[in-house]
Design brief:
By secondary structure, the chain is of the alpha/beta class. Helix content is 41%, strand content 18%. The strands form 4 sheets. It has a 7-stranded parallel β-sheet with strand order 3-2-1-4-5-6-11, sandwiched between helices. It is globular and about 65 Å long. The N and C termini lie far apart (43 Å). The mean pLDDT is 94.
């Protein structure tokens, strides 16, 4: 018998990949989308058309994580076997500008989902998209499921509330509710306001002659970057476990923003060298002498996390997790896609 899945954040990077995965597995798909004056469904439009052609269920419902009544209405209508909460305000930098809205949807939105499940559909299995931002800076020590949280942004603080709310509802009411503590995961579908996509799109535009320079913040911030298309497979595996639990999902490797820029520049055909220091540092193409990268202090966070490092050992053992796409290949995938979007052939 086919299962039914409800996905919040279905139009985002992770949601679009998850839809494709679940449709391949024969799921009936339902998505929660906000009613806005502009459509933002380009990531899922083709998938919806393909599902319709095959006679597969792929239905969208209007609702909002800030509106408990709309959540209850959709859950009552769909009665999903699995609910993947990928929605909310997902940008750390934006959370400093809009802290109240971030808390409203990223923290209280999860409470609204759990309350609805508890009262309407208690057999629904919930996956909560948690975040490595919970850990803050661990001084380079790999974080696992036992590492204490130290959130360093309104986004991370909201995610901590959501994390513990999931744990409490699991332990108090017996709900099958799990947290996936995902470290940074990227793809060609990443939003353009995230640093990795900003880099690959910026380098592609410089190569195409559409921009002169790429402006960035802290080049030495280090992150554990994985491939989003692989990570959604782990979301599904988490909900197939007999018992609900919490998992760190990561590659176990950390790389700097500087490394990401260097790999992207190389794939775009540039030979990047660095000159200067601090906010006066620039990245110059050794072949042409052009300045390609400049530092802009506006892009520094009020509370910076210098290094994120992860220990995904539990996921490796219990979920059979072994990432196939490593850092250089991830940058290559993203650069190739952005170059080809601009009509530049990429090998």
């Amino acid at each position: 018998m086919s299962k039914t899945a409800l996905i919040t954040g279905i139009t985002g990077q992770d949601g679009s990949y998850l839809v494709e995965l679940l449709l391949d597995k024969g799921y009936h798909i339902h998505g929660l989308v906000r009613r806005t004056s502009q459509f933002n469904r380009e990531r899922i439009d083709q998938t919806r058309s393909q599902a319709a052609a095959k006679g597969q269920t792929f239905e969208l419902h209007y609702g909002d994580l800030a509106d408990a009544s709309s959540i209850s209405r959709v859950i009552a209508k769909v009665r999903p076997d699995e609910l993947y909460n990928l929605g909310g305000q997902s940008h750390v930098g934006v959370s400093f500008e809009e802290p109240e809205y971030t808390a409203l949807v990223d923290a209280l939105g999860v409470l609204r989902l759990l309350e609805s499940i508890k009262h309407i559909s208690p057999t629904t299995r919930l996956y909560q998209a948690s975040s490595s931002e919970l850990f803050g800076s661990t001084g380079g020590r790999p974080a696992n499921e036992q590492t204490p949280f130290r959130p360093r942004s309104p986004y991370a603080a909201a995610k901590q509330y959501a994390y513990w709310t999931v744990v409490n509802y699991r332990e108090s009411y017996g709900l099958h509710a799990s947290n996936g503590i995902l470290f940074n995961h990227e793809s060609p579908r990443r939003g353009e306001n995230f640093v990795t996509r900003k880099i690959t799109l910026g380098m592609a535009r410089i190569r195409a002659g559409l921009e002169q320079t790429l402006r960035l913040g802290n080049l030495d911030a280090r992150r554990d970057w994985g491939y989003a298309k692989e990570y959604v497979e782990l979301m599904w595996r988490i909900l197939q476990q007999q018992a609900a639990d919490d998992y760190v999902i990561a590659t176990g490797e950390s790389h700097s923003v500087r490394e990401f820029v260097e790999h992207a520049a190389r794939f775009a055909g540039f030979d990047l060298t660095w000159e200067g220091s601090g906010v006066h540092e620039v990245g110059r193409d050794a072949k042409s002498g052009r300045v390609l990268v400049q530092i802009d202090p506006r892009y520094y966070r009020p509370a910076e996390i210098d290094v994120t490092a992860a220990d995904p050992g539990k996921a490796g053992a219990k979920l059979n997790w072994n990432p196939q796409v490593r850092f250089p290949e991830l940058v290559r995938i993203m650069m190739k896609a952005d170059l080809e979007r601009l009509g530049i052939r990429a090998d």
